[in-house]
Design goal:
The chain is an alpha+beta fold. It is 59% helix and 15% strand.
């Protein structure tokens, strides 16, 4: 997923601050909560994206919604809203999470399948590919029926496409060449 320059800059600023103040672990878990809340709440997203609601009202609502977060996280959210960047709040939080995971050496692994599969099958796929170097990884499993079957495994910038759709397209291409 492409992340905006704005999200990267805010996330880097927050990371620099939390490293200096020793709050990286706390803010890391809070940013996961922010991403989860922003992903699940369509109403909150609509509220933040509404242009005719002024920033003071948005800050009041954000203070109530995010009242359990640390002072540092709340200040970031207020700053983002004051600067008119509330549409980037989820991206900023996700970029912060990515930066902390990069520092900690966590690999991001995405597994796409046509249907949901068992934990054992997921483990078997990951072990068989040898792309995942150690046990320190963040797995994101997505379901995309368009691939028809098989899987697509993406680790960092490497990808293994063992989907039925790709294999059928390759057969079609081979027939057209002959």
């Amino acid at each position: 997923m492409l992340t905006s320059k704005v999200a990267k800059r805010y996330a880097q600023g927050l990371l620099d601050f939390t490293n200096e103040s020793g709050q990286t672990a706390t803010v890391f878990s809070e940013m996961k909560d922010v991403v989860k809340l922003m992903s699940e709440s369509k109403d909150l997203n609509k509220f933040f994206l509404t242009p005719y609601i002024d920033s003071k009202k948005k800050i009041e609502v954000a203070n109530e919604v995010f009242k359990s977060l640390s002072h540092s996280s709340q200040n970031l959210i207020k700053l983002v809203i004051k600067q008119g960047r509330e549409n980037q709040l989820k991206n900023i939080a996700q970029e912060y999470i990515n930066k902390v995971e990069d520092i900690n050496g966590v690999q991001r692994v995405t597994l796409t399948t046509a249907t949901s599969i068992s934990k054992e099958n997921i483990d078997q796929i990951i072990k068989s590919t040898n792309l995942v170097k150690d046990s320190n990884f963040d797995l994101n499993v997505t379901i995309n029926p368009e691939i028809l079957g098989g899987y697509i495994l993406r680790v960092g910038d490497q990808q293994i496409d063992a989907s039925v759709k790709t294999k059928l397209n390759q057969v079609k291409k081979d027939f057209q060449l002959n």
